Amino acid sequence: MIVAGLAIAGLIGAAVAVTTGDGAERPAVTTAAAAAEEGLGSATASGPTAPPGATASAGAAPARQTETEPQREPTSGPVRARPTEVVAQAAPASVAYLQDRYRISATEAARRLALQELSAPLAARLTEQVPRSYGGMWLDQAAGGVLTVGATDVAAVQAAVADVPDRTHVRVVAVRHTLSQLAEAATGVAAALDASPGSDVVVDQQANEVVVLTGDRIAADEPRLAEARRAAGVPTRTQARTPATNVPKACDPRYCPQAPMRGGIRLDVPRDDGSVGGCTTGFNLIVGVREAYVLTAGHCVVGGRHQQVDRTWHQFLGPKVPVNVEAPNPDLAENAYPYDYAIMPYQTGALSRWAYPRGATAGPSLVNYWCVPDNKQCATRGSRDVPITGYVPWKDIQTGWVVCATGSAYTPKAGEQYVDSGAGAGYVPGTRCGEIIGKSSGGIDVQICARPGDSGGPLFTEADGKALGILSNGDPGQGACTNPNEKNFYAPISTILDRANARSGERLRIRLATSGPVDGPVAR
């Protein structure tokens, strides 16, 4: 029996959730873990395990089915979706992006964003209910905002999505391999090459194949590569992890001195040779019981001209406000995309400058949403802070999502006291929104303008405040944003957390903060 229970739930609730067959409800993406005793909230990812990366292609011939789906009891619970108007109200810049990019109405843009929000719990549901048929999914904006679902058994998956809200915009297409088959193959290829599945060997859902990323851990001329690909049993391809034209986005972020610490503000970093570069803050983190840390890109403080212990500052040329210091623990920083991260404690005495006031109830962890002229929605909504409510695991992030990013790269005008990031005249630091165009880099590939100095800056969903990743590298470019197809690449937050915790033997308990840093005891 194929379960088709994905009934409409009356479009209620402030969070998307999946109800399992036993009646127990669980978050489909992330939950915020209460941490009142720590004075800092944290969030961890939850939900059923799914293969990393996967995206599946339309039009492939399906494999012959040799097994039937496991017998399951019908589920009584729905996949719930927020009303489109609620999603649109929470994500004005994402609506504006879709309107401008695809020449659609605000109503149609809102519908697409609501379908995007539904897609992650739907993917989790299909992974659980029809694993021998489900081949992944992606949101096809160019084809009219259609959620495309791959299937080796089209009828089985069509039955499983029959009652999904906005069913007319959910398309099931034939693919040759299931998501679980591709993930198993990726794991095998990675093992044969002494590499890591999900970062060095990934699954491309849209192409319905395995991708081996070369150029760092796996050399392009690796002698074992050909045999590993032959043994995979599924289509594979090799791909350079990043194009040769990519440039790091590390340099000077913009000055933003007010507490609390938030993602998207500048960190000036003196180098070993006496020059000064910088990056952008990504997200607040918690390490251990309640220690406040800040996440940015690893190439800001690791390798090259960063062989000494680096300290970060706001507006290094004055007033030179102290912020972070490179952590002594080597497990807290790497410079090898997608492991491009630096988890940094505060300099001695600096936390009091960046924390919520002493004795105050802990406030939310924030990302700075700073208006720029080429973000059209800012003309009516204005700058603001976005509370971070959790994160989306990399495996659940999908091509076609509309997302936003904040950076603080800047080239000063004559007479201004800023370190030049190399952004180029005409680039304005702040928040821009765009589209996820792939995951085959092992990270998150987006069409959003960025410049040197934006590195480490946050990528997030505007409507529900979910953290996705931090900027690592991308297409070269200087000055104003004029190329709508510019590509940049973000290291996933879930990849970073999993990696740093694994390297430290899980002792450090590193997690995303959903409450901002507090100086002193938390008010009870």
Proportion of residues in extended strands: 25-35%
What radius of gyration results from the CA coordinates?
22 Å
What is the makeup of the main sheet? 7 strands, antiparallel
Parts with pLDDT < 50 across at least 5 consecutive residues: 1-39, 46-76
The amount of helix comes to 10-25%
Secondary structural class: alpha+beta
Distance between the termini: 53 Å
Secondary structure tally: strands:
30
Bulk shape: globular
| SS field, number of helical segments | 9
Major beta sheet, strand line-up: 3-4-30-15-16-20-19
Mean pLDDT: 83
Write the layout of secondary structure elements.
Elements: E1 17-19, E2 25-27, E3 30-33, E4 42-45, H1 84-90, H2 92-102, H3 106-129, E5 134-140, E6 146-151, H4 154-160, E7 170-174, H5 179-192, E8 201-204, E9 209-214, H6 225-230, E10 236-240, E11 247-248, E12 262-263, E13 266-270, E14 276-280, E15 284-287, E16 291-296, E17 311-314, E18 321-325, E19 333-336, E20 339-345, H7 351-354, E21 366-369, H8 378-381, E22 384-387, E23 390-391, E24 402-407, E25 430-438, E26 444-447, E27 458-460, E28 466-474, E29 488-492, H9 493-503, E30 511-513
Parallel strand pairs: 6-7, 9-10, 12-21, 23-28
Antiparallel strand pairs: 1-2, 3-4, 4-30, 5-6, 8-9, 11-28, 13-14, 15-16, 15-30, 16-20, 17-18, 19-20, 21-22, 24-25, 24-27, 25-26, 26-29, 27-28, 28-29
Helix pairs in contact: 1-3, 2-3
